[in-house]
Write a structure and sequence with these properties.
Mean pLDDT: 94
CATH architecture: Sandwich
Oligomer: single chain
Number of domains: 1
Order of helices and strands: HEHEEHHEEEEEEHEEEEEEHH
Low-confidence stretches: 270-274
Largest sheet: 7 strands, antiparallel
Radius of gyration: 18 Å
Strand content: 15-25%
Distance between the termini: 39 Å
CATH topology: Jelly Rolls
Number of helices: 7
Bound molecules: fe (ii) ion
Length: about 270
């Protein structure tokens, strides 16, 4: 089990502001985050990572950028568009997806981003917020921790997540645009609510909330039932964000097809077979 108080990386986290090393303060942070997630499916912790550390993380991602895989596509919130559906069905309405992604294994173990992700205290904090007795960083070396880079005009399409939640850390904001937009609890386990989802895809704003955060903000978001996107980036400064993934199983691997789609990678197993 991850030790909540395992030597915190105090060169990375602003422990004066977020006292994860103090049991009572930590307990209050967990309770606040749980309350926020229940209310809106999204919680932000501004200034979680120190300014000097976040600048190093952004510089590292910029240096590694040539390794990133570029995607230009259009997808529905559920995956590729389905033909033959009645007009207005959201399973047939695709929105643009354009971004670059760095995989977990593009980063060295000494990377500040990787050090933060691999700090057991963060994993345990997230587990406590999510009410999980057992939680693991995703074992898949490509997917556990990655970084997406959005240049001018790039956008992340409206979608639902397949996993219960994701943790993100904004490394660098765009000059404008690049906002996180979401429609909280627009569907449930029992009701897809396709009519309301289609309304959002057509540009309806009634149910949409916008979050504009600064670099260094840690965000917790439950995206299984809340459709969400990143609005098109404006200006020449790329928006860069690190995404940390977790799973209840210690050995979570994604499919070869998903690895190829997200990172343009062929797994070693495939290369051996060829
Ligand atoms: Fe998502």
């Amino acid at each position: 089990m991850n030790d909540p108080f395992a030597a915190p990386p105090n060169d990375l986290i602003d422990l004066a502001r977020y006292r994860l090393d103090n049991p009572a303060s930590r307990e209050a942070l967990v309770a606040d985050a749980q309350q926020g997630l229940a209310a809106s499916s999204c919680v932000v912790l501004p200034g979680f990572v120190r300014r000097d550390a976040i600048e190093r993380m952004a510089a590292e991602s910029t240096r590694l950028r040539p390794r990133a895989w570029r995607r230009d596509d259009a997808m529905t919130p559920y995956g590729p568009p389905v033909a033959g559906l009645p007009p207005g069905d959201p399973r047939a309405i695709a929105t643009p997806l354009a971004m670059r992604t760095l995989a977990g294994d593009d980063f060295e173990a000494s990377s500040d981003i990787v050090r933060l992700y691999r700090w057991d205290g963060l994993t345990r904090f997230i587990a406590d917020v999510m009410g999980e007795t057992e939680l693991h960083r995703v074992f898949d070396p490509l997917f556990g921790c990655n970084v997406t880079i959005l240049d001018e005009g790039d956008t992340h399409h409206w979608h639902f997540d397949s996993n219960d939640f994701v943790i993100s850390l904004l490394l660098q904001s765009a000059e404008s645009g690049g906002d996180f937009e979401f429609a909280p609890h627009i569907r449930s386990a029992d009701d897809e609510n396709h009519g309301a989802v289609a309304e959002v895809l057509r540009g309806g704003r009634d149910r949409v909330k916008t979050v504009r955060v600064e670099a260094g903000t840690l965000m917790m978001f439950c995206g299984k039932y809340s459709v969400h996107r990143v609005s098109p980036v404006k200006g020449t400064r790329p928006r860069m964000i690190a995404l940390f993934s977790y799973d209840k199983r210690p050995d979570k691997m994604f499919s070869d097809a998903t690895a190829a789609r997200v990172f343009g990678r062929k797994r070693v197993t495939q290369l051996v077979a060829e």
